[in-house]
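User: Thanks for the earlier help. One more: Protein VAC14 homolog. Can you show the sequence and predicted structure together?

Assistant: Of course, both are below.
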Amino acid sequence: VPPLPLPRLVREFVAQNNTSQIKHVIQILSQEFALSQHPHSRKGGLIGLAACSIALGKDSGLYLKELIEPVLTCFNDADSRLRYYACEALYNIVKVARGSVLPHFNVLFDGLSKLAADPDPNVKSGSELLDRLLKDIVTESNQFDLVSFIPLLRERIYSNNQYARQFIISWILVLESVPDINLLDYLPEILDGLFQILGDNSKEIRKMCEVALGEFLKEIKKNPSSVKFAEMANILVIHCQAADDLIQLTAMCWMREFIQLAGRVMLPYSSGILTAVLPCLSYDDRKKNIKEVANVCNQSLMKLVIPEDDEMDEAKPSVTIPAEPTSEESLSKPEAVTTGESHTEQPLFFPCSCERIQVTLNLDGIVQVLDYHLSDTSIGMMTRIAVLKWLYHLYIKTPRKMFRHTDNLFPILLRTLSDESDEVILKDLELLAEIASSPAGQTEEGQGPSDGSDVRPGPAELHVPARAGQLSSSSTKGLECSPSTPTMNSYFYKFMINLLKRFSSERKLLEARGAFIIRQLCLLLNAENIFHSMADILLREEDLKFASTMVHTLNTILLTSSELFQLRNQLKDLKTPESRNLFCCLYRSWCHNPVTTVSLCFLTQNYKHAYDLIQKFGDLEVTVDFLTEVDKLVQLIECPIFTYLRLQLLDVKNNPYLIKALYGLLMLLPQSSAFQLLSHRLQCVPDPELMQTTDNTKPSTSFKRTAASNIDYTELLQHFEKVQNKHLEARHQRAGRAEQLDRRVVL
């Protein structure tokens, strides 16, 4: 077929409706020319196919398959000029056929995506003209087959080539702009690829991708009911952990919108979301934007947990959305594609039903993530605070389910008390207080943290009710600060045991934060119960040196902390059986430290017993530490706490043993500033002759002493002597061991 008369010949065949001859002409142009081994023949074949298409006019649609296939084959030609001619030929074919080429769109798109990355500028320029033409056709048509196109788009979106990526994004923007094409339905299939393109080195491509993602997000906000949130949740979880700041910020913004728009549909993905969000809360100002968005995500997700979640049966799945992946799956990237063209990774797509059914909270996964972040010492302070807030929130909203995890959480919560941050410790104490006071803790049949201790409180020694509502009149005092309910459960006493063990094994914690921790607990829980239980535990403490130190700490808190004002008033008068019971309990443990025992007697106005105790000090080993504590007690007597005691010095007749006790302390002290201070105070006592009274003097203020008359002070004094003998024996043993060690060193 000669090339010049070809258009006329084809038009004659069209006029005759001779389809067989037309196909024959196209076949010759394809097989013998366009697919020839000779470059010039291939060039002629491409020109001929384009001319044939022009001659066919509107009938070219009937022969598009035969016309397009050989031209697309030439797209892979080694000669750049032939690739350009192929591009030019296809442009003419498509221009004539217009909408008729849409059934062949996928092969055209595939060919164009390859030309977009062509190294030859002329070929690239030609492909851009063809690309614009094809976009115009798609935009003006309502017959575009999006369903068949998505798999190809999903594959090509993972290209690493910048020009191919630019080509893909431009097509996504075009398809988004067409009203009749609902690309949002297929967003889960291309979202992962879009986020990967967002990390491209080219600023232009990143900007284009930002625009595309922004348009999608606008559409999601407009039509949230038609969005497949669940199918995209895990994709966002992965990219919220990206190293690239732009990817991470964009994914986090999407996550924020998803949580706020989809609500509880996002709950099954909570552990993955928290894995991504929690570390961001500790970012510095260089990533301030990411930190702020992550904080909103965290707060919004926390609000989705409701009390009804504590009642749902986790064994019965009530939603058809995909299950959350394991920790390995949720953090891992998909495997790379090994096709001929360079790609990054396989697409992420999680098919699921779009039904919006009530979901069940996966509490086990959430607790596992929170436990991991709290255990990781490299995690920042704000993240640890957020974790503790989450745990506290879960214990408030879902206490029944959370108490199943308490035994595993308890050790790490105790270790967190050693944190460097006061704010972290405060949140930790709030959480521990909630665990110790929640009624849900009483439904666990007394199962508490496994501490290996068999110590149990005596019923007359510790006001801890066995069940909710069983409270004595005294144990209800001061519980208004309890974060949930005025009851103590089985975890309370075990918390006290483990806290004291922590102080014993970590003396620096006791020295630096001991008072702070105990004072905060007194605000959060019942101060009387705390002191009562600790005294009961210390009574059985085998490490006598620690017991003495701990008693001194507790006594200092009792005498000086404003949080314990009510408890001090209760002890000062000893008017009730409960206050006398508390005094006896404290006294027995306070005997580990002689000076603190005297100060307790001063606080409770047991002046005669204080005098009797000081008389026993002559039998004790007087050390520098002992004298230092006496010095501190003298300083305390001058503080506002003991104002009432100093005023009672005016009534010499009714308080002879108070004056005798103070003189006893004065005789113990060396000539020091404390000696001078107490001596000057005693010099202010009016008329010293009134001090000459006998032991059987009856005080006029008889009510207070009558109320305390059922206390066996003789037995208490004997207990004091017994405890001090133990301490003396222990000191001798320590001295003996030290002497043996010195001998070994010498040898």
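User: Great, one quick takeaway?

Assistant: The two ends are 117 Å apart (CA to CA).
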